[in-house]
Queue: 3 jobs
Job 1
Amino acid sequence: MKILKLVSILSVLAIILFLTNNSTSAKNNIGNSVTLVEDSQSQYKPFISIVKPSHSFGEIAQNVPVEHKFELENSGNEPLILTEVKASCGCTATEWTKAPIAPGEKAFVTATFNAKKVGKFNKSITVFSNSEDNLKLSFNGTVLAKEE
């Protein structure tokens, strides 16, 4: 009778141990599946690439607007949307591609600078989008006094 009780207890313990290990293994498999799905989804994103993020105007005349067109590319796997473009000062006007940019396609940010002050300048533009990081563009030069 004691042997039968001992065998019954050991059998119950073995079943509990078996179920616990399988449950933990199943949880690990579910966790791994979730991680794989998250990792695979993180690969499908838009990404802004730019060859030349800065531009030098050199010497320019005071109160004469100058313009530069920055060329961007979506090197990601999803459409890129430029949501906002902000210049560092009121002397710079910006225009940009408003339509979604397909993977591999190009887009533009145009900066028009109208210098009021004479001397060296360094300006920046921040491009906001659905990409992970904001993009910083910059331009510089020297403003010469307008001859009268």
Job 2
Amino acid sequence: MKNILNRRNLFKLGAAAIVSIPVLKIGNVFAEAAATATEELAWDACPIVVPEKIVKKLAKDKAKTRLAFVANATTSTHKKYKDGAACGNCKFYKSKVEDGKITREVGGYAKCTMLANKYVNRCGWCKSYKKADDKYAIYKYLKKEEA
């Protein structure tokens, strides 16, 4: 067989190139998804660093003080606090549990209705806490450390 570049072979080569473009893009999507999956927090981890894209959207200190907010629920000394209570399982914390995964969170932070839809971390707690049964199982292990 001769390798002749004629019109018919040129169209075949062009069609093969066009068909392969979406396949290459899908490969990039999977590669990006694998890269970002390692950056996500484990479902039970408390965030240490505030993601850059929400720094300006964090809850204000004045509002946090009014609601006796603490960044780590287990350090709360408020009389309303009970073991297992945390922002992550509060009905005002705007994350969702879908297909066994937590969605609507950015690096362990999500919006809180009680704090004017500003971001708070999932391990925090405030006196407006109301237990959300669908999310409670995730954070019920949180307990105060006894000294």
Job 3
Amino acid sequence: MSPLLVTVLVAAGVLVLLLVAAAVYIVRAARSAQARLGAILRGERVLKMAGGANYSGKEGDAARLRGNGILVLSPTRILFTMWAPKVTLELPLSHVVGARVEGVFLGRAAKTLVVTYRNKAGAEESCGWVVPDADGWAKAVEENRGKQA
């Protein structure tokens, strides 16, 4: 067997092992996020959920946090639990000013659900998620934020 063939086979084996390890990590991280979310919701009704949501970040946030996780709309709030790091973001619907869909958000060209809300100081901020059916999400957030007024 030629040294080149041995090198290629070893590299392919290492790549397969890395892919399997990454898949196991992702499954475990997703299950952990789901468990954390269940503990936070404690039986609260879920109106809409996206298990593969990608958080694009918050406008004006220099240390932009981004990542995949679970996005949930309940009758009173929007929750996003990241797979890793173990971070949960919560937006009460009573603080939400509006929801829309943008084709580009924070420099990322993707159909993104953008939610604008008032922070604790009363200033408006926006954050975004790439989710399937972004239009449906924006409509659901708008319909339910109106019920919080």
